[in-house]
Structures are given as C-alpha cells and as structure tokens.
Amino acid sequence: MITNRTARLLVCSFFLAAGGMLNAADSQLPIPHLHGVFPTGVKQGGSVVVEFVGDNFTDPKSLYFSHKGFTTELIPEVKGTPAAKDKPEVKTIPAKFKVTCAADVPPGQYDVRFVGKLGISNPRTFTVGDITEFIETEPNNERKEANRVELNTSINGRINASEDVDFFVFKAKQGQRVIVECEAWRIDSKMDGVMWLYNSDGKLMASSQDEDISSEKRDPFFDFDAPTDGDYYIKITDFTYNGGNGFFYRLKVSTLPYVDFILPTAAAPGSTVPITFYGRNLPGGEKTDFTIHGRPLQKLTQQVAVPADPDTALGLRYSSLVRPGTTVLNGMEVRVKSPDGQSNPKLLSFSALPQFLETEPNDSREKAQRIEPPCAVSGQFMKGDVDYFVFKAKKGEKYTIAVYAMRIGSPADPDLEMLNEKGEPGATSQDFTENIGQLRFSTGNLDINYVHPVGADGDVTFRLEHLYRQNQGGPQFVYRMEVEREPEPDFRLVCSPIHEIHMDSHEVYQGGRERFDILVWRMNGHNDPITVEAKNLPKGLSAEPIIIGKEVKWGTLIVTAAPDAAIGEGEFEVVGKSKIKVKDKDGKEVEKEIVRKARGGTIVWDTVNTNALARMTRSLVLAVRDKVPFTLTAAPTELKCKPGEQLTVTVTLKRREDMPSPVQITGAGYQLPPGMEIPLTTIEKDKNEAKVLIKTDKMKEGVWSFTISGDAQVPVDKRNIRCVYPSNIIKITVEIPKEVPKEKPKEMKPPEKKK
Ligand SMILES: [Ca+2]
Ligand SMILES: [Ca+2]
Ligand SMILES: [Ca+2]
Ligand SMILES: [Ca+2]
C-alpha cells in the first residue's frame, strides 16, 4: 500500500533525482540549527563562556535551557551571519554566550537551544557536573604537549577537523582505581571516540573504542588500578579520523563511583525498595564475583524511594540520553553518591508488577524457574547462558511476554523460544520492531514483545537467551521480563517537529498555524480514540483538541498564533486522554480514562534515507516569530458522513502582502484518517478560496480529526522558499448505517381483475 508518506518520499526522491531542485522535505522558513556546543558543561554554581555553532544564527539573542537555573549573556563582539541565501545548510557560524548555572541545579544533563532572530534551534545536551571542569588547550597533539589535569576532573574537548589528536596527563597514586569515561555519542556528538592509556615511560597500558556492543554506548572507557605513583597519559581521537564542530566530548577522569547496572531494574511508584548498584569505586561497596572485561565489580544496596505523584509515576525523568525506543517506559534516574561527587545515572524503570530476581541454575527445561504471572523478573545473561521459565496457564488464555534490554540500557539482544507440551521448540520471537516515528524517531529495537496464546491447560515453558550467547554475555547483560495475562491497553505520546530528516524545532509565526506531530505508542492492543490537547501554551497561542482515532498512530496538533502573539519562546505541554475498557475486581468490564503527557522527540543529526539519530528531549519548547506568509482556514470544522459520500470543504486563504503565489491544497506528508483521500486542489494566484472535494469511499466507522495543508513558494530575500502550513482542525464522524433487518418483501399481487 502506498501511504501518503511513501508517496511523498517517492515524490521527494524524484525531485532529488531530477537535479535537487526541490526537496519535498524542506518546507519551512529558515530556522536556526544548532550543531555544536563547546564546552559542553559547567560545574554546579559556576559559569563558563560557551561557543555555539550552527546555521541560520542571524542576530543571536539568548539561550533556552530545559532548567530555569541557568542565566545567559550574549558576548557581543561575536556576530551571527545573515540568513543563509542559497545553501543554508553549508554555513556554520559561532556565537558566544556566558552561561551561569545556579548552585541548586542538580548535576545531570539538560537541553540547551540557541535563540536568534529566526527562532529557536534544536537542542544539544549540556551537562552540569559536581567536579572541576577543564577546557582543553590546543596544541595538545603529542605527549609532550599533554594538558595536565587533576584527578576528579571533567575535561571538555573537541576533535578538530584534519585528524586532531588530544593528549591529557594526570597524576595517580599506586592502587588508586581510576575511571576514565568518555561521553560523546551520548551527548549528541558525532564523535566515535577511541582512547589509549600510557604510563610515564610511554608504555601502552590499555586502549578502548566501544566499551560494549550496545548502540547506546559507543564511547570508550578505562578502568585501571594505578600500578605506581606517577603520571598517566590519555590519548583520544575520532576512530574514523573525522573532526569538526560536531565532534565534542567530555572526559571524566576520576576515582568517583561508577555504576554499571542495577538489580532489580524496576520499582513501583509510591514504594521504597532496596536497589542493588553494581559498579566500581562504590563507597562501602562489597566485593562480588562479577567482572566486566576482567575488572571486578562491587555491589551496594540502597533503599530507593519512588515518588507516587503522577508527574513522576507517569514520567521518564532520566537526564541522560533516552533513545526513541525507550520512550515507551516510565522511570527515573538513580545514582550512588560519594563525598567527592556522584556516580553516573542509571534508569530505574517503573512497574507495578511484583518484582523477582532470576534464580540460577535455570539452564534446562527441568530446572526452569517457576513464576506466577502477573510478575516481572530481572535477570542476566552470562556468557553461554540460557534461562528457562515456566508458569501455569489455562487453554485459551493469552499472555504477553515483554523483555526489556536495549530499552533499559543493556547490551543484551534477547531471544525468546516457547516450548510445546513435548518440550520441542515452538514459537520464537526475536525483535520488537514497531517503529512509531519513521525515519525521524525510529523506535525499532532488539527487545521482545510477544503474545502467547495458550493451547492447552498446564505448564507454559519458554527459554530466554542472548542471541550471541556463544561469544558474548556477562553480568551487565541485564534484562527485565514482564509476564502478564492480557495487560491493560495503554499509550504514550511523543511530540515531534515535522521535518522528517533534518534537525528541526517548533516555530509558530504570528497570524499563522503550525503542525506539531504527535507520534503514538499504542500498547497492549490499545486502539481507542485518544483526545490530545496542548496545555500552558504561551499567551496568544491556541490549539484545538484533536482526536487521534482508531488505527492512527500519527496525530497532527495545530497551534495557531494570534496576529499579535508576543514574539518569544516558551514551554508547553501536550496531554492525551483515552477511555479504555478494563476488568474490575469481579471481572466485569468497566471504562477507565487514562491520561498521558507527551514526551518530546528530536533529530540529533540530519539524515538522508536511513533512520535519523534521534532522542527524547528534556522539555517541549516553541518560538513565536513574525509573520506568517499565508494562513489557511477550512470550513466547516465538523463533518459527518457515510462512507462513499463526497464532502466539500471550503478552504480560504489569507496571504501576506508580498505573497502572490498560487497555493496547492493537499493532504500529503502526514497521516489522514484511514481511507480518506484529499485530491490536489489549487488556489490560483489571484484567488483566495477553493473547494476541496474529499473522498470517503474507503473510510470506516469512527471519529477522527485531520488538517488540510497549503503548499506554496514564498518570497524571502529575493528567493523563493517552499512553505507548507496546515489549516485548522476538522473533525470527521463516519457512520455506517445500521442494517435494518430486511422485511420479507410483500409480494406484489397483480390487481385482481374485476370480473
Ligand atoms: Ca582537540
Ligand atoms: Ca589536539
Ligand atoms: Ca541468567
Ligand atoms: Ca541460566
């Protein structure tokens, strides 16, 4: 089936093939794109001058952080350059700001965005640390030029173009366990770091590239016991010999606690539970038998209180990187604290299910661990390990077996095999590939979500293993398995800017409308309508509630700016509500409303035709700028029909004075209600109205909302820029006439002939 989207991509490829004259994906006025930030962090309570590099940086104004504890001051001698003329993507411009962080901003990672005349940019990660920050000084390309740092320092470095190499040197005492953690990939950098460690004689002690195989952690890492008092050298560069403004990194050289994983992996909101941290340099940590790459792990059990308030319980408050697949989870971060500073964070996900730990040995069908669903089990895949589980079930029941590994930051790629009554292999499930965000927010991952229909009364046995168990495995190959009989339907929302392959942000122009896309996770068979509203919009902005009807996983929220809406930037929220059917205590079906706040999504780096590197944002932000080139208004705003009836919508167009072009009216580039077709219609140069004839032949019963788009060339600085703006929201109710029981047609008797 060719969807609107596919069709649009096909059109896009066609135009690209035809000489790149028109890239269908570029359909907006120029907005700032933030590429690099340097340095990438500041110490709690400190300040630092930060260079921002990107394009469309006309008239730098300020920065926007996802925490209110930052103040920023533009350093005036650096000027941004004018809006890019021919090739906006080519010019990258620096702007400098002094950033001051309040003393009460918790250590962690935040989003920073550039704000200029043309709007607000995509975010970059900015770290608040609790130890000394150091900024590299070039040249440091050889050992003798190494930058000297103290232990317990976060180094801010950048691999410059033309094969830059950076050397650092620090003193350590014999027996100190030193952790060198490079963050690049995880803080929006393009750098694929590689590191070497040398002693004071220049002898190579270690090298590191990808510390483990999970795609979340391509960053290098060292953990070593200093063999003698003395100097130690770190050499770091990009594995592919690339460099530039996007190749920034942080290098934490410390004896601070470092956490590798936690067990159990989840807790229930409103509970206080013991969580065991496994890691290194844990204050008061006990020895364990676990090692990772030969390095011993300690453990430390701490009581963790999980708040019960809905914002926490239904949130995902994890300041470190959250890739798209993980946005289906709720959770919070946990750390180990020490007097000198705190550890890296770990995600503690939320689950109300009874939590258990895996019990080895469970390596055969006979030794399968017996569980009683509903329950959750946290386990590990050691090298070569297989884990069998068994539970009692009745014929006709359906159980969902969900396994979380990649989504909770584990390197494991879980593989599930059901066994039949004779113990023979049955159904298998490898990957949970649902992708709710196409190229821009690809949620596909290697975890499992399998629904098992029970064939007969008795035991259900299955086996879990890491797909590459012959060669890989270890204590850090953690997983969480949840087994539930028909879990309640649920949903999550992700609010994303509309560009499908480029860095983008939410911009609204005075007097105009903008589309904010809402991507939908429909979980456990959820297929009911979801009503979505924007909340706390800046003054002068409004958005009508939309209905994301059944079978739709991509909603379009339309934000309208009044002609006098104040120019500025602000945060907003997007909230979805849906009524689901659940069983009460007595097994009776009842209706329950669930409310979920949308998370933000962003493309980290532009892509062409592969999944973009994307992540969750730490807040939802928009900018208002002047003044929209044209506005579409559609009427009526409510439609009712039976499938097959043709509907007429009148679209009126308001043009900015300098906008003479014709406007094409389409329904392309986003998801329409299933089966709806909006034919291409043109509002000619000197016209302000068109009748759009909507086809409903293939539509089904239900309620949806949709928007109609206008696509036109807009003159900007003596060139034309293609702009697409949506109409207001239209609600459509499709009713299928109830079949009237057919009465037996009365026989038409020929009139009796009068004799
Ligand atoms: Ca450098
Ligand atoms: Ca260097
Ligand atoms: Ca195991
Ligand atoms: Ca096992």
Task: Write up this protein.
With 755 residues, the protein is mainly β. The chain has 6 domains: 31-131, Immunoglobulin-like (Sandwich); 133-254, Sandwich (Jelly Rolls); 258-350, no CATH class; 355-485, Jelly Rolls; 488-626, Immunoglobulin-like; 629-739, Immunoglobulin-like. It is built from 2 helices and 62 strands. A 6-stranded mixed beta sheet has the order 44-46-42-40-50-51, with no helix packed on it. Strands 2, 4, 7, 8 and 9 form a 5-stranded mixed beta sheet that branches. It has a 5-stranded mixed beta sheet with strand order 10-12-19-14-17, with no helix packed on it. The longest helix has 14 residues, at 4-17. Residues 360, 362-363, 385-387 line the site of one calcium ion (CA).
CATH class of the largest domain: Mainly Beta
The average pLDDT score comes to 91
* Helix share, percent: under 10%
Strand arrangement, major sheet? 44-46-42-40-50-51
Number of helices in the DSSP assignment = 2
Could you give a quick summary of the protein structure above?
With 755 residues, the chain is mainly beta. It contains two helices and 62 strands. Bound molecules: calcium ion (CA) (4 copies).
